[in-house]
Amino acid sequence: MAGQELIEQDIHEQQLTRVVVAACSPHLHEKTFRGVCERSGMNPYLSEMASIREHVAWVHTDKVAATAKAKAIVSGTVERVLKNDPLEAIRVPIDAQTLVVGGGIAGIQAALEVAEAGYDVYLIEREASLGGHMAQFDKTFPTLDCAACILTPKMASAGAHPKVHLFTWSEVEKVEGFVGNYTVTVKKKPRYVDEDICTGCGICVEKCPVLVVDDKFEAGIGYRKAIYWPFAQAVPNLPVLDTETCTYYIGGKGGCRACEKFCPTVPNSIKFDQKEERVTLKVGNIILATGWDLFNARRIPQYGYGRLANVFTNLELERMCNAAGPTGGKVVLRDGQTAPKRVGIVHCVGSRDRNYNRHCSAICCMQSLKTAHLVKERTGAEVYNFYIDIRTPGKEYDEFYQRVLDDGVHFVRGKVAEISDIPFDPAEASRNGAGTLYIQVEDTLAGMQRRIPVDMVVLAAGLEPRRDSSEVGKTFGIACSSNGWFIEKHAKMDPIATMTEGVFVAGCAGGPKDIPASVSQGSAAAARVLNYIRQGELALEPVRASVLEERCSGCRICNGLCPFNAISFIEERKVTEINAALCQGCGTCVAACPAGAIQGTGFSNEQLFAQIEGLLRDVNRSHEPEVV
Amino acid sequence: MSKPKFAMYWAAACGGCEIAVLNIDEKVLDLDANFEVAFWPAAMDVKYKDVEAMEDASILVTLFNGSIRTDENEHMARLLRRKSRILVAFGSCANEGCIPGLANLSSRESLFERVYQANATSPSTENPNNLRPQASSQVPEGTLTLPPLQAVIRTLDQVVEVDYHVPGCPPESRQIAAVLDALIAVVKGEAELPPKGAVLGAGNSTVCDECARKRDVKQIGKISRIQELPPLATDVCLLEQGLMCAGPATRSGCDSRCPNVGAPCIGCYGAAPGVLDQGARLMTAIASVVDANEPDAIDRVLDGIPDPAGSFYRFSLAHSLLRANRAALAEKP
């Protein structure tokens, strides 16, 4: 008979009134066993889990001591459960509108899935267009289909979908509420272009006389105007004006105004006095697909990026390979003309490196293989890949690696020590010619130091969490791991949900991923949201904090502590109040209240001290004070 | 009809509680009018043997101040418990050990060393011959005895059953007068006794409740001692101005006398209702509002508290979950 049935049977036969399951952490199976109790006619909150897996089996090697500890934990849990009160779950309605933050491929996918099911989605994008990093890529591995060709139709569908409400050039400023009932404040940055009037004809961009380096979309190797589209297929098809480079703004709002002058719409679409706007949205669920930042290769000075002209990043190469990119698809040196004859591609730049990031960025092996293939194809150059390990775990990924091997690309296993433009001696200089870059590396397969002369180096800079991920996490009430990626509810069994109900994570915001994984996560997050929406309401843990008003002195110690903004101070009565609907029962304020005026359901003094008594039952009590 | 009997006793304490009772001025005449004072060593001469001769439960009410430090204290606690119908733990020492309770962080040996050693660390000690008090000493007239010190200080309710508690170091005279009035009302049959175990002469919230200073959300970036700070704002929470104030974790009832004149609360009214450990509550409260995130920065803020045990547990150590440290507890007499 299965364990759950056994418990049910015992509840009936022995007329049990309390149940303790000594197994794993409550995190994993508390729901399961509460369900067993409920099915057997017991109040589910009269059961408890004793975590003897995470707290004992997984962390100790001394079996005798571990067994004693397991018994103590069970004993404590038994004492605690005796003090448990029967509780009723709190039921909350779920607002059918959804917020998706981040308009990259994961966010677009999530938004479209929810919208296709017939529910409204607010899609918030910080940049001026949807697309994210994928829009910058040229080809996608391993099939080598054009990134724009598969991404832009999705962008366009999201842009045109009646259920997708787009907020580009916007950021989420504040999130209040709880699952089913979030109130979100979105800041719309001024575009200085009227969204309702502009037809996207592009005359303003054409007439703008200011040309500046585009260090965002073109990764610094192309140019844009002061009023510009992020890129040609931008969604929405609206330009944005950059006040830091616009002549009119630099001149203290005087001069130029060419864009306004030539704008053909009536009334004029250019709005120099446009202000920041705040929009308040009501949503039931939130999907965070905020993506990643590229590792700044300048942080590794010995690789020379930013100092040696012909050291490029992988993102620069993506733009260079793109037929619509700054070089028209030609792979050339920094002079914009010379095709390289020898190219070195360095893997794991800023990844798998204890000095920078310990994590594997997951996509750079495949991206570097793709780059090797494209460079070889376009220039016929000798291509060297310097790698620590080749990681090709995706579908058809290793086949692609074999193909690149067959292309005749050289693979050197070893971490590059240095990239230098200084030859050892005049002989090396004359052998290799001026402008040569020397890659110093230990070839660990050949067992020797090598010095490989190349014309161009491509650094496979890794993926990092967004620089503001911890602030974003705070805004949405979710946590980041020590290295900055958002933490999922369970690494294996619940990689989409977070510890905050109604907030989901998709794509690289939770860690490096390739495009298929990001798309899958976008769909998965949408499925979770749709599940909640269809249920209409949700049962929440009835664990809540509450204030005993007559004991509250209004000291305000707790006022700044609530991660869910559930605490407010009532000035007239000089007492603190907790909004039971917002409270998530985390217990921070309960612990902090110096007056003991805040109570947490399920964590009363009686319960905790009973548990401690139980834990210490078998402990030698020789330290008791002597009684004369 | 004879008047009911009243007793007051002074165990391990400073005597402030006795003064506080006298500080009720003419109200003490009401006491005399309604009670026969059967035993009150500070006020009149009655021998222990006279108390021992009394019938059990013949004293209506005993105010017991002081903690249990010596065998004599314990003997008197047990004796007065037996002789009294109502035993009141009066003042901080009897309730929670008070300042003498901090001695529970030291063994008896180190206490004696500190106080009596010739080259002692205590600046007020002058004892060139290294004399120490002895439990028993021979003099020409015979044998003199002193009650031996027990290993740790205990509170009255750790030794005998206690009926009521009056907190404070010392209890406020206004509150004492109110407690006496209530007792007299009971004696006259005008009122019922409060439920056993009740705390009398105090409020049900914390000192902040009575504090006139304006309070805001707290972010404490630095904790200083009062002499290290420039003159303080007179209308803003002292904790917010960087002073360690125990007000948030201390039972109300004192009218917030210290904070209202610019001195931080030191916690003498003990834990708030329902709180088991005042020091732990105060500690978690302060820790919750430290305005720092990195371990080093947090340490820098907390380093501003010169004596954490004495700051958080100044009055309540002996009655806290900690009670005493191992050195004191492990020592055998």
Can you offer a commentary on this structure?
The complex is a heterodimer of chains A (about 625) and B (about 325). Chain A has 17 helices and 32 strands. Chain A is globular, with a radius of gyration of 30 Å. Chain A has a 5-stranded parallel β-sheet with strand order 8-5-4-16-27, with helices on one face. Chain A has a 5-stranded parallel β-sheet with strand order 18-25-19-20-21. Chain A has about 625 residues and is an alpha/beta fold. The model of chain A has no long low-confidence stretch (mean pLDDT about 95). In chain A, helix 11 links the parallel strand 19 and strand 20 (about 380-385). Chain A has 4 domains: about 5-85; about 100-290 and about 505-535, 3-Layer(bba) Sandwich (FAD/NAD(P)-binding domain); about 290-465, FAD/NAD(P)-binding domain (3-Layer(bba) Sandwich), CATH 3.50.50.60; about 545-600, Alpha-Beta Plaits (2-Layer Sandwich). In chain A, helix 10 crosses helix 11 (about 365-380). Chain B is of the alpha/beta class and about 325 residues long. Chain B has 12 helices and 9 strands. Chain B has helices at about 15-20, 25-35, 50-55, 70-85, 90-95, 110-115, 175-185, 255-260, 280-290, 295-300, 310, 325-330; strands at about 5-10, 35-40, 60-65, 70, 85-90, 135-140, 140-145, 150-155, 165. In chain B, the strands form 3 sheets. Chain B has a 5-stranded parallel β-sheet with strand order 2-1-3-5-9. In chain B, strand 6 (about 135-140) and strand 7 (about 140-145) form a beta hairpin. In chain B, helix 2 (about 25-35) runs parallel beside helix 7 (about 175-185). The longest helix of chain B is centred in the middle third of the chain and has 15 residues, at about 175-185. The model of chain B has no long low-confidence stretch (mean pLDDT about 95). Classes of the chains: A alpha/beta (about 625), B alpha/beta (about 325). Chains A and B meet through helix 16 of A and strand 8, helix 9 and helix 12 of B.
